[in-house]
């Protein structure tokens, strides 16, 4: 079966200076001993009577705790914050393999809810591990960053012209200023580098000599940072739908190849839709379907389309579409067709009612509903790599990308709040080491493209890579239902032995 409860619950949530991998040691006076030796106060996950997520974790037998970590690792005796974790203890204690931390990317997507789902999805292999989820610092149930955003910038496009781009400049600047006003003391310490250090504090507090890790998408960068900084403490490491570690944070969004692959995926979808014009009425040929998409995009640039209570302009449409191209499932193709039908109706008649999925997407983009989630995610994206602060540089890049990929080029090249963000405390560290790891990638992924996974594989010289051919999924292990992939990954988790060579499924 293609879809599982793991996918249904998780899929909606699913990128310098040189550094060397060194063994990080603790000494009695380095300031970290108090954190490494802290007593973990396991407790109920339900925090209030209306905490449905916490109640579900309790019912699944999951334990929760708050771990103290330094806000600033260069000043460990200064202020501390808390990082929320959840643990589902191993049931096959005779073959116990230690803690396995999971991460769902984002960055900063909440993870705790997925701990029992991962336990179920991993079956006998997962039974040998303590499955541990960590809400990254400033996200989920950890010490929060919430900038009080009334709208979101991602995924927003630079649109069709300079006027649309200028609106995105104003939005990005406003969102950055809101964060600086409310969270100036926290923002410089939001980074994957610090999250990796938090992971090692958790490992030490659990009294585990090694920490295994399963990370998806941006979570692959977290795993890579961990093995770079703590190679001797790395257990069994799986990085799924990996990003290019040399393009961390928001920098990966502007990769020109991604936009071209997205245009190709849209054409693939249009081929399917054109074959069923009796159902969709979007065009009888590929070019007609693509022309329909272009028509509503340009109409939204002239005047925002009224979709339910939401004004949908040209900065929104590319992101709405690409979110439904993430995988090649039939349900995603049908939902995209239904979405385009709504947009066509709004363009032709002046208004239309959104599908439930589209209403959810627009609420996330145009209201403050997801402010905390998006604030934390942005803080990490801006903290992981420096970016240009020159507005005209972005505009020139937008125009160049538009020529390569008219719909999706301005989406990836758009300016972001990072152009107006406070500088992070630490610079990114290059990923170059030989720690054993397993990289898993779908060949047709249009978010973390195949070349990104290959770059991760190359930079982790001790790794092996599994490529799932001819599919477009973002998230492969446990998501796609590929017995070839799942068997190979489970074998590695079970034995600690990588495949003898790279594998194509």
From TrEMBL:
Keyword Cytoplasm included in the entry's annotation: no
Residue ranges annotated for the AB hydrolase-1 domain, each copy included: 99-314
Domain of life of the source: Bacteria
Keywords associated with the record: Hydrolase, Signal
Leader sequence segment: 1-23
One Pfam assignment: Abhydrolase_1
GO molecular function, one term: hydrolase activity
Species this chain originates from: Rhizocola hellebori
Protein name: Alpha/beta hydrolase
Keyword Protease: no
Family assignment from sequence similarity: Belongs to the peptidase S33 family.
Family annotation (PANTHER family): 2-SUCCINYL-6-HYDROXY-2,4-CYCLOHEXADIENE-1-CARBOXYLATE SYNTHASE, TRIPEPTIDYL AMINOPEPTIDASE
Peptidase S33 tripeptidyl aminopeptidase-like C-terminal domain boundaries: 407-505
InterPro entries (UniProt xref): AB_hydrolase_1, AB_hydrolase_fold, Pept_S33_TAP-like_C, Serine_prot/Carboxylest_S33
